[in-house]
Amino acid sequence: MDFDFDNAHLDRIRVMFIFPERPTMGPAEEKADLEFEEEIPFSPSQATRKVHAFDFESSQLASHMGFSHSWSYKQIHIRPIRSIYIVLIKAKINVLLPFGPLAILLHYFTGKHGWVFFFSLLGITPLAERLGYATEQLALFTGPTVGGLLNATFGNVTEMIISIYALKNGMIRVVQQSLLGSILSNMLLVLGCAFFTGGIAHYKKVQEFDKAAALVNSGLLLMAVMGTMFPAVLHFTHSEVHFGRSELSLSRFSSCIMLVAYASYLFFQLKSQPNLYKPIEEGGENNDKDSDEDEIPEITHWEAIGWLFILTAWLSVLSGYLVDAIRAKGSVEVKY
């Protein structure tokens, strides 16, 4: 808070400081006080010293307040720099970030689409990792359930953006191969690595999973497999009622069903049965150690949200150049 005093207020404070009000006294005390004042007259030097002391204290107070304001301003200016250092410089994988601008320069100044594709891929790699980091930082403020959903959503945003650009350019085969690779990697590679590393990290105890949550996830997985398999079976068996149209209608219907199922899953996880997705407690001593070693967020939740938007925007830009390089390379090969 600021103290704004004019000269009149300062004079009043000085007079009150020099001649403070005395408490009410009885006749005997007043008489003794008068006799004491007659014996010891008032000295002007004492008043001068008191005034100087008051001025010194006022200057000290003002300097302290000015220091606090300057410190807060410095904190406001230092925090963005610290956030940039943590997100864009601190991690070792960020050495690949310059390949993104380099891919854009190669796209405009050279016709080497292979190098543009390679450098764009290198530039996208750290962006995907930093997206995961920002999501994890935001999950520390939202809780494990919402954090898991954010991680699952932004973990696939790279493939989603590339697929959208590929569809806009009519590269349906690229989208199909991307979806197939994503499904196989998440079903087999990621899940197998999670089981393997979990068994190594917690080799002294059995990994436990909630039965209801596992059944829900298995049902969603089965629905996704059926939605992908039925149009393919209809196409390869040539059992369509109308050539081309039946397959397209079934694909659109399956996609709508899967979107509704995913929305129902979100409601089930966040509102209906949120207790099913809480971590299973296994032993009191280990839980105490885990609670003591809770991860402290390195950036604020608003900074995490801002970085999610910034990284997603830059990722979409590089994805556009990546898809353009694939299309240009394919058109050149067709000509030859």
From TrEMBL:
GO terms for biological process: intracellular calcium ion homeostasis. It is a multi-pass membrane protein. It comes from Dillenia turbinata. This is Sodium/calcium exchanger membrane region. Gene3D superfamilies: NCX, central ion-binding region. InterPro entries: CaH_exchang, NaCa_Exmemb, NCX_ion-bd_dom_sf. It holds the Pfam family Na_Ca_ex. Residues 115-270 form the Sodium/calcium exchanger membrane region domain. GO terms for cellular component: endomembrane system; plant-type vacuole membrane. Its main location: membrane. One of its GO terms (molecular function) is calcium:proton antiporter activity. Keywords: Antiport, Ion transport, Membrane, Transmembrane, Transmembrane helix, Transport. It is found in: Endomembrane system. The chain crosses the membrane at residues 84-109, 148-167, 179-203, 215-237, 249-268, 304-323.
